[in-house]
Amino acid sequence: MPVKEKTNALSTHEVINQVPVLENYNLYEVDPLLKELPLPDDARQRLCDFGARLGSSEYIRAGVLANEYPPVLSTHDRYGQRADTVEFHPAYHQMFSAGMGFGVHCLPWTTDEPSAESHLERAAGHYMLSQIEAGVGCPLTMTFAGVPALQRYAPEEIKSVWIPKLTAKVYDHRFLPVEQKTGATMGMAMTEKQGGSDVRANTTQATHLEGDYYSLRGHKWFCSAPMCDAFLTLAQAEGGLTCFFVPRFKPDGSKNSLRVVRLKNKLGNKSNASSEIEYEDTWAVRVGEEGRGVPTIIEMVNHTRLDCVIGSAALMRAALTQALHHVNHRMAFGSVLIEQPLMINVLADLCLEMEAAWLMIQRLCRAYGQGHADPQERAFARLATAVAKFWVCKRCPQMVVECLECLGGNGYTEDFPLARIFRESPLLSVWEGSGNVISLDILRSFQKEPESLDAFLSEVSQSEHVTKQSLQAKIVQLAQPFSARRLAQSLAVHWQMQLMEQSTTPGACEAFARSRLEEPGGVFGLQAKVEDCRAIVNRFISSFS
Ligand SMILES: Cc1cc2nc3c(=O)[nH]c(=O)nc-3n(C[C@H](O)[C@H](O)[C@H](O)COP(=O)(O)OP(=O)(O)OC[C@H]3O[C@@H](n4cnc5c(N)ncnc54)[C@H](O)[C@@H]3O)c2cc1C
Q1: Among protein residues, the one whose CA lies closest to atom 51 of ligand 1
Q2: Closest CA to 400 of 328, 315, 299
Q3: Ligand 1 centre and the CA of 133: distance in Å?
């Protein structure tokens, strides 16, 4: 991997044993999991090109700048009229444009029928993009996830105008009516002050105007990427909680009343504008039936949850790349860190975690790609998405912290990427169903869609390490709210075990079984066999120079 050497002669001392800058590398080429994807050559080539571009010093710098210069809200223009626009650093636009150019927001929707391959290619593209800049992932994901919900539930007049713009591989960030734009983006606004998980508590009111048209009045406490061209939102109509489509412009071309009150001051995710908004006489189009707001928007939420898994895995991989690079160069106590047995133990454990998370994504992509034609795959996706969302998002911050520690003190400073990755790492667990809520959702799926549990169990019990009876016994023991997290963890780890049996990394399956099922521990680096660890690390480090 090409790295930049630094000059080392200072007047007071010589700079030695600092690792070279990691830039101008190919994110695809350094990742053995990506290089083995079951994809056709043209898709691999696109991923390879995208990986090279994202790993260039130019894009790495853009990822930094997009976060160092966060978005700025203009509530009013200079004449005192409401503006409600957000201005971003050019680096943010550059990253967004790269994502849309690749099709992170649309790849599966650009063919007649979504396929496992198009989902996988998209997932891999998203995974690489978010390693360099995670903030643009939010609106790209919401745009991606909004399309199937519109496709299924929106009136024809919305579908025919909006879907071609939402699936165009063009980033057009001008604040204009959709008809005048070459590409469009979409957000989602559900969370209110009095409750985000329990959206039934939403107080925003929808008054019927005529046909599918309504007027909204109320607020949303979180609305990320308010510069999007339209939003799916929830409000109380006469028939109950209902899903609505809210464009930034009304059909006559005038600005719709959507007030962006302020931007959130967040722990991380700095490049992404997350806002509080208000609706007053806001023009909206009903999507789905009155009173069916949650089932309608769930179509979108399932896809955003998939992306929470991909986004968390991306942060894990970004952190792992930094850790591998560092230990490959840094010396301590007379030898390079990568050769020291205890460091090998930690790194191998991190690589195992990475592979298990990625294999979940790969399997989910197949389920999403085939789910429209295969009820078994659709049922599998329902439960498996929630299980993966819980587990990968929870493991992400733990893994990032351990990678950060591999860099020692440098890892804890703002001069290295780990600090930004660390601040980003808890977010996707909060979003789209926080840890408890997603665990309870797993229980709900047992009741409401028992076929999802059947599909999940028959697949996971194909493992040599798991029997259907033992899993069923665990479910009987743990399927209650108090122990829903233990259940979610158990389902996740057993599923990962089954997936790791397909791993081509020598020793990985046995090491995973020992450390995750037989003698699970509390921290990374508790592996028992040094030979297995060496083989695992060798596979992941082989593309690093
Ligand atoms: C950066 C950022 C961007 C966001 N962007 C958006 C956006 O664009 N659109 C949008 O709609 N929302 C957005 N959100 C909001 C996010 O989805 C909510 O914060 C989340 O759903 C939790 O809702 P809440 O904050 O109201 O917490 P609450 O619902 O009050 O939950 C608080 C805690 O209680 C737990 N809990 C809830 N119910 C139960 C229960 N029955 N049993 C046990 N525990 C429970 C939850 O797991 C959570 O840990 C964003 C949040 C962040 C941080």
Answers
A1: 431
A2: 315
A3: 23
Total Cβ atoms within 10 A of residue 370: 19
Q: Which atom of ligand 1 is least distant from the CA of 437?
A: 47
Claim to verify: residue 413 and residue 535 sit in the same structural domain: yes
Residue from 86, 136, 186, 197 to probe ligand 1 pocket by mutation (most atoms less than 8 Å from CB):
197
β-pairing, 186-189 vs 230-237, is parallel
Token pair, residue 521, equals 């521990």
Q: pLDDT tens per residue, the chain (545 residues)?
A: 655 555 678 889 999 999 999 999 999 999 999 999 999 999 999 999 999 999 999 999 999 999 999 999 999 999 999 999 999 999 999 999 999 999 999 999 998 889 999 999 999 999 999 999 999 999 999 999 999 999 999 999 999 999 999 999 999 999 999 999 999 999 999 999 998 999 999 999 999 999 999 999 999 999 999 999 999 999 999 999 999 999 999 999 999 999 999 999 999 999 999 999 999 999 999 999 999 999 999 888 999 999 999 999 999 999 999 999 999 999 999 999 999 999 999 999 999 999 999 999 999 999 999 999 999 999 999 999 999 999 999 999 999 999 999 999 999 999 999 999 999 999 999 999 999 999 999 999 999 999 999 999 999 999 999 899 999 999 999 999 999 999 999 999 999 999 999 998 889 999 999 999 999 989 999 999 999 999 999 999 988 87
**Residues 53, 114 within the same domain:** yes
Q: Structure tokens of 298?
A: 């769930």
- Paired strand residues for 189: 233
Tell me the residue range of the domain where 46 lies. Answer: 23-159
CA 522 – ligand 1 centroid, Å: 27
Domain check: are 109 and 223 in the same one?
no
Residue whose structure tokens are 């999802």: 452
In this predicted complex, what is the ipTM?
0.99
How far lies 272's CA from each of 45, 64, 135, in Å?
29, 13, 5
- Which residue CA neighbors atom 41 of ligand 1 most closely? 437
> Alpha-carbon distance 303 to 306, whole Å?
5
CATH code: domain of residue 200: 2.40.110.20
Structure tokens at 478: 């743990």
**Residues 405, 279 within the same domain:** no
Interior angle at CA 350, CA 344 and CA 354, nearest 5 = 140
What's the structural domain count of the chain? 3
Q: Do 497 and 513 touch, CB atoms closer than 8 A?
A: yes
Q: For residue 287, what are the β-bridge partners?
A: 243
> What does the angle CA 108 – CA 112 – CA 114 come to, to the nearest 5 degrees?
30
